[in-house]
Design a protein that fits this description.
alpha+beta, Neuraminidase, four-stranded antiparallel β-sheet
Length: 292
Amino acid sequence: MRLQLRSLTAALAVLFSLAAGSRLQAADIYVITNNSFGTGGGLTNFGKIDSSTGAYTNISGYSNSDLYGLAWHDVNQLFYLTDVTGGTFSAPLKTLTTSGTLSSSLGNVTGTLALAYRAADNKLYAYSASSAQTFTIDASNAAKTTLNNAAGATYGSPGGGRYSIMNDVMYMTWSGFPATPSGNFGTMGYTASSTFSSISTDSLYARMNLANDGTTMYGIYGNGTAGQQRLYTIDVSTGALTAGPFITGTGLGTYFHGAAIVPVPEPSTYALAAIASGVMAFVAHRRKARRA
């Protein structure tokens, strides 16, 4: 019995060590990308970026399409986005799988480009570039409820990918539209009285999408010039930017119109599950031994 106890203790120590050392890992940042600042980009691609290397892997392409505002829905296990093909801003809400399958329209959410999913209330939150209003959206039928008609961000911004919710705080970037980017990073709330609150200004924010893995906020930058697409990390308390790797790969556009990270369990989660299983097995073994 003592030998078994020592063996279990040693195994637990190894698992706890694995759990403690497993937090730093690369994230796959899914993006919508093409070569157009607005609409009329021709081919729009969907792919993912390795956050540690900047390597872009193309997943699927959509001819003559303008897709905006990638948001991952934790419950439905799907991305949501808006389709503004042709520049009409009727903006049908659609879903997208991680393998690139795009759905038909769930309903129109006119003018809505920026999307983010909030786990606390299972809603999609949105910002309209055409009206500078904030909304909630029912993911099942695209029903839109207006929150604030004057949320405090400049007309025409943000485009897709400018919302990201981390630790239940909604972060946002916006810019002047279209040719004079001012660049702002801050927060937006969830109520009818919520307005934009600036944390930092930087011209880089004018062409930056946001995505987070629950711990790190990433800025995905593309200004229309090939070779300048780059990842940044953002200190959400100060807005300070730290430059990361340049983004490269076949199918990569010069602009980004949506970004999101699909949450994956950390290795520590599996390690703790193994710990629990080990303890339960040990207890069961001891009970059997006592009965014998």
